[in-house]
Structure formats: structure tokens, C-alpha cells
Amino acid sequence: MATDEELDAFLSQAERRAYKTALYTVQDHHAALDIVQNAMLKLCERYHDRPAAELPLLFQRILQNAITDHHRRARVRNFWVRVMAPFRDKDDQEAGESLEDLAVADESTTGVDPVKAAGGSEILAAIEVAIAQLPLRQRQAFLLRYWEEMDVAEVARAMGCSEGSVKTHSHRALNALAKRLKARGIEP
Q1: What are the mean pLDDT values of the chain's consecutive 10-residue runs (188 residues total)?
Q2: Of 9, 78, 139, 150, which one is least surrounded by beta carbons within 10 A?
Q3: Phi/psi of residue 78, each to 5°?
């Protein structure tokens, strides 16, 4: 059984990476924060009695299920928005920025060479765009394998698929990323 301190330490360590994973996958800052927060709450409420060694895999499974649920809900919501769009009142649409249009502020870059920071941030932005363009399952496999550094068996359990599927999705993701980045002039 994990102690409260072990659970707190795990959540503190996993928080930022889980947010980035959710953000890459759902591509919405607020939704990503909600998904991570709900996944953490679910882990604390339902699995606090599990050993500390099981927490990372349980959390990844909860997080991936929450991301999948978000995509399912979005698909249904988008269907109804398209169906109801002709009936919307033109006065209901407000001018100006929506929450989705607002940019998320990055961490401070004080003390960093501006030329290196600009080049590095451009490459990072290109990588993030390329990851965001991957199909959902490829994106999940890629992020779990290479971002979370999980092995194939752990990723298969987290995604609820076979190890062969994980290898296929990861391979396709790597090829697609390499092709997109090479087209933008970014070579490893």
C-alpha cells in the first residue's frame, strides 16, 4: 500500500509530463488540465491502497482512458453542433477571442541565449505540431513509449491493446514524425 507521501511524490513527479501528454493529445489547454486533474483524483480515490510500484502504470491507464473519453465526447458534441448550427442566432456569436484562442504562457527563459532559445523553441514547436498531427493511437503509443519511457508491455496494458499493436503504432508514428520534420528541414 502506498503511503500518502509516496502518492504525493508520484503525483508531483508525474504532473507536468501528464499535462504535456494530455495537451499533445487533446490540443486544448483547459481540457488537458481537466483531464489530468480528474485522472489524479481518480487515482487517489480508487487506487490509494495499491503499492507504490503500481501507481505509474495505473495512472497512465487512467489518463489514456480519460483522453479517449474526451475524444468520444468531442465527436458527439461536434456532431450536434453541426446539426444545430443552422438554427443558431447570429447575435449569440460574440466578437473577440475565445478561451481556445488564447495562448498558454511558457516558462520564463531568463538567462538563456536568445538565439539558441529561438532556434530551440522553433524546433520544439515544429515537433509539437508534428506530434499533434499524428492519429490518436499513434500519438498515444509514441508519447507513452518515448515521452513516458515505458516499455512495450507497459504501453500495451495502458492502451488496452496487444504488444504488436504498440510496436506498429510506435513505428508508424516515428516514420510519420521523421517525414514531417525532414520536410521542415529538421534532421536528427
Answers
A1: 90 94 91 95 93 93 93 74 53 44 42 58 82 91 86 91 94 91 81
A2: 78
A3: -65, -35
